[in-house]
Recover the amino acids of this structure.
């Protein structure tokens, strides 16, 4: 069956522009997670959704970052006024249930480059 | 201070060798994950542990909650096992990640 998909796969933008990254989880998966991985760095947790609700937004790096999920399915991660330090691979994952910490299925990521 | 420490950072092994990767953490957790990141960047979840031991094929993961330590073992290693292995812990509503162990298995 279809896995987690993300779009775009690559995005180049100019400093100061807004970007929207999209994640389509596996159909029926209740939980959805966003991570980022900067070049040569480890993974960083950003936010997770249980259904359409994000219980804890404190992992978002700054108030320029926001995320939403609608219909218990698609999620978008929006970065406003992008900065060069936002350049990274943004990864999305989903898992079947509402229990945080279940096995996750990862998407291929969106590579964001801010010039 | 990093809540999750992995060792070794880099590991080179001959095909067939038994491999151990270690993860130590400093916070109380509800679960620990082992992830595999392939050279192309794709990530696969290998194990989710909250206690004891799990086995899948040639991979074995163990966790000692009292000692705040987990190990990932690979038996009869193969070049296709070459990847970065990442430990992640869940102390609350956020995941904390180790910096990863880069494994290269030489034929």
């Amino acid at each position: 069956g279809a896995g987690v998909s993300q779009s775009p796969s690559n995005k180049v933008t100019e400093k100061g522009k807004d970007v929207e990254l999209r994640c389509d989880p596996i159909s029926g998966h209740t939980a959805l997670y966003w991570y980022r991985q900067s070049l040569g760095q480890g993974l960083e947790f950003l936010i997770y959704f249980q259904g359409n609700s994000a219980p804890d937004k404190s992992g978002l790096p700054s108030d320029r970052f926001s995320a939403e999920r609608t219909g218990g399915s698609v999620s978008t991660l929006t970065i406003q006024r992008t900065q060069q330090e936002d350049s990274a691979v943004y990864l999305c994952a989903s898992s079947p249930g509402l229990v945080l910490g279940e096995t996750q299925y990862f998407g291929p990521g969106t590579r964001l480059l801010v010039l | 201070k990093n809540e999750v420490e992995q060792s070794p950072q880099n590991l080179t092994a001959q095909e067939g060798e038994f491999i151990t990767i270690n993860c130590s953490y400093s916070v109380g957790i509800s679960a620990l994950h082992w992830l595999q990141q392939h050279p192309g960047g794709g990530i696969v979840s290998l194990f989710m542990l909250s206690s004891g031991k799990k086995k899948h094929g040639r991979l074995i993961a163990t966790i000692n909650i009292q000692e705040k330590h987990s190990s990932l073992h690979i038996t009869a290693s193969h070049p296709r096992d070459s990847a970065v292995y990442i430990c992640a812990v869940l102390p609350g509503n956020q995941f904390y990640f180790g910096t990863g162990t880069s494994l290269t298995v030489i034929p």
About this structure: Chain A is about 0% helix and 45% strand.
